[in-house]
Amino acid sequence: MANDTLNKNRFELEQALVQLFRAMQELIALSKKERIYLLNEPDQILQIVEDKEALLDRVTTLEDKCRQVVQELSLSLNLRAEETSIQSLLPLLKDEEASRIKNLSDGIHSLAIQAREMNHASQALAVTKLDWLKATQSFLIGIFQPEPGYRSPKDGTKNQEAVPGLGVEIRA
Length: 172
Fold this sequence. Notes:
Layout: H1 2-40, H2 45-76, H3 86-89, H4 95-144
Helix pairs in contact: 1-2, 1-4
């Protein structure tokens, strides 16, 4: 009976890790798409962001499932520790099972690092594009904004207080 529970929990953990691995691969694919859209098709960014949010919700659910199964496995194996982890369970599993779980866990960790790096690069690209947009906006506003103290010849006065900036903030 205890062995059946152990096998069931181990199988559940493997399945959750496989799903998590696939979700991380999907996240990387979306991040690659995001970079292409940032460069060439900015109108598609909103859809990618929504897709990534949904995927990250799924990743969080899978991580919670893994934690739950790790807790159940540690109880089945009578492992008493304040914090249980997959790494602490590996020595208690059969070599083949431990190897599969370790490989999945290492793969997920590697994909998470890759996704994080891609997101930092996309963020830098987005900030650069935003800075360019702000500079362009500032330039265009500067072209159409009258000189300080300018007054239309129709008014008949030459000197006047500075004209407010048309309600638009200008930053360099």
